[in-house]
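Today's session is about reading a structure prediction critically. Students often jump straight to the picture, but the first step is always the sequence itself: look for stretches that repeat, for charged clusters, for runs of hydrophobic residues. Only then move on to the predicted structure, which in these notes is written as discrete structure tokens rather than atom positions. Here is the chain we will use throughout the hour.
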Amino acid sequence: MNLRALRNHMGVYERDSCIAKCERQGGRGSTQGNMGTVNVGDYATFVQFLHFASPYVVGHRNKIFVILIPGEVMMHKERLRNILDDILLLHGLGCKVVLVAGSKDLIDEELRSSGLVEESYDGQFVGGYRVSGRDVMDVVMAENGAVINQISAMLSKGPPIPMMRRHAKDVSKTSEKVSGSKVMPSVKVVSGNFTAAKRRGVLNGVDFGWSGSVSHIHVDAIHSQLNDGNIVLLTCLGISSVGELLNCSVYDLAAKAAIELGADKFICFTGKDVRKLGLPHYLPLEEAKLQIASRTLGCCSNIVSYENRDASETAAIAQIEPLFGSGSNIVFDLDTWADMEIPFEIISGIVVCHHDISRSHLVDYEEDGALLLELYSRDGISGVCMIASDIYQGIRQARYEDVPQVSQLLQSFVLLGYELPCAIVNLGSYMDKVMVLERDGDVLACAMYSVLGTGLDEKLVVEINALIVSESHRTNGFGDSMLDYMEQDLRRKNVGLVVIVPTTGSCDWFVDRGFEYQGLANQSMVLPEERRHGYKEFAKLYSKSIVDIDSSLADLPAGRRIGF
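Below is the predicted structure for this chain, in token form.
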């Protein structure tokens, strides 16, 4: 298997392949011209892509994704069309989509052209909210109506008729349904009175008029539409208990929709305000909160890693957490965040993760195809920041003081008849090759490796000698986190191949994580002679290549991204 095939097989995205090739052939529009045909030379790549994307397709099926498209994106029609094409594909692959569409920039443009914003507070922002008098509300309603119509139209694009005729069960029936004026949209987009809101009223001497805050989402009604296979479209318009339309924040709306619906993912498209911050590809939730604390309390100037965090920084995080609410009390005060000059997209991602939504993805709308690559490939793409609970929390290089607890874990391994590259009594001098997962002073897992030499590609070959999780913690995903962290660290150390001789019963675990059977260990030329003779005659060797990835991700320290 050549390098490109290997990369595709392992789920690694190459910029100079799928999307770049599409751009050279004339962009996305060219796929409509040839009715989605694939060049003969690309057949193998296309098939391989389907294979490595299939686990993600299965994993995301029937999952609820709340996707926020801010008003800035609505101003760029071609980008918007591409994004909606990708969202339409998500829906076709079985995802349940709740789309939240902003209109701020469209409203700003209309207010400027009409001169309304210059006459008084009306139409201007005070803190994080727009003052919305009657004239401004007329503009808000008109622009939101336009947004609903435009998005509904773009999402109504059906598949090419020749494809429908080729793959339909009954061509005669299909031709009747899709010919002439009877073409039906492939998906139904539903909008309505799903958002309950309340007036902000008069605050600090400012009458906010028909500006509102989101009270709650009509969860059952939205679930009913999603179960019927529809895309639900929400805008900034909420409805009060007395039947008034109110102008709400889409960030507040999207965050509360994700939390109340129990969404599996929150996805927010971002623009220049987030782009200039240069966020990492993976931002643990606690570190994101610490950055907020640094702006709020001035307690620290930089994001620091888990193992270097002191008690004062932990206390600072606890001090700001009431700003996000707790339990069913969802707090999203735009005035607070506007004063800090933190983009609302980032705050939305933090708030939903704080309320137990597992993943928030901030996707730069300038990166064409980034949404699909983030969701359906292993390593994603630059231009995306994922906020999530820290799955690497507590994983670090072992220290000398860890020797007693690490020795205790390794002793159980040795009792099974497996050898280590050093005697346990000499473990202290080998700690640079050991990683541990520590929580509250207890070492719950450890991993040990040894360097075997240099392979044909002039990269190092490493053997994992042990990967052990404390028996009482083996259902928490610690083994996956340890293996992932170790592979990221080894890649930065110029390791090209990892081998392992699994213990009895663990072979399938490693195969599920990309290791391949290479034969009997005592006959393998990969292992040094002294290691081969140390294994029993039935011991099996497995290996996994540490393939190259995007340079913007490969240089990150271990634990700074999710994915091998």
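Discussion point for the tutorial: Residues 1-26, 29-33, 174-181, 299-308 have pLDDT under 50 and may be disordered.
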